Amino acid sequence: MYELFSPRPPSLGPTMVNPHDSSTPPSSISPASKVVLYSNWQSSCSWRVRFALNLKGIPYEYKAVDLAKGEHLTPEFEKLNPLHLVPVLVDGDFVVSDSYAILMYLEEKYPENALLPVDLRLRALNLQAANIICSSVQPLTMLGVLKLIEEKVGPEERLSWAQYNIDKGFIALEKLLKNSSGKYATGDKIYMADVFLAPQIAIAARRFNMDMALSEFEASLPERQPDAIHCLLLPPSIGFRGKGIVVCSKVKCLKL
């Protein structure tokens, strides 16, 4: 099992450099041009790009976009992305938006630590899994879409709509990946399918109360044991075990 976390950036400032742990080995990649990521900490699409940049070891500058304050609706941001959405990647004088396009761009320009396997069939499988997330799951559960459904149909339909589309997408993914999964989604190495899956799993579990875990694994969680003492739940960790997608809660037990 592996764990994926997207730490919340510091309080919003005009510009923030992405904080790297001092224990992280220095990147072997030194882009000739400056890479800047316009991101929001709660955006699963931005999370994908952050994950990919970190996996590839590409240093980047983090610029937070406060969606609650409407910073994505300003004329200045519109010049970066006419759709007013995050993420946006600026690489020197080149601007690209949409997480799928950004990851394909990064894969071509920075081929080190590849996110797509050499094997043609495995590559196609990764692209198909990524496309299910970015075309058939995430867009249907965006906050803007859910708000519109609530306004047009009613608040009770908002959650059921999200749960239906997430369930439909992940059932398809389970069937698609059942014969290829290993330690990770398509084998024993992290590829693009994992980069798209992990943030979506976390969002589904946290925001829409989806049960994304194997029952056998849930039963073994520390907080489920009879001697568990005052467990403080921390953000979920995500992983793949055999043929199943697993989300579990990390716990820190405190003796009071």
Task: Give me the secondary-structure topology.
Layout: E1 16-17, E2 35-39, H1 44-56, E3 61-64, H2 75-80, E4 88-91, E5 94-97, H3 99-109, H4 120-137, H5 143-152, H6 155-177, H7 192-207, H8 215-219, E6 231-241, E7 244-253
Parallel strand pairs: 2-3
Antiparallel strand pairs: 1-3, 2-4, 4-5, 6-7
Characterization of the model:
With 256 residues, this protein is an alpha+beta fold. The protein has helices at residues 44-56, 75-80, 99-109, 120-137, 143-152, 155-177, 192-207, 215-219, and strands spanning 16-17, 35-39, 61-64, 88-91, 94-97, 231-241, 244-253. The strands form 2 sheets. A 5-stranded mixed β-sheet has the order 1-3-2-4-5, with helices on one face. Strands 6-7 form a two-stranded antiparallel sheet. Helix 1 links the parallel strand 2 and strand 3 (61-64). Mean pLDDT is 75; it is low at 1-28, 212-222 and 230-256.
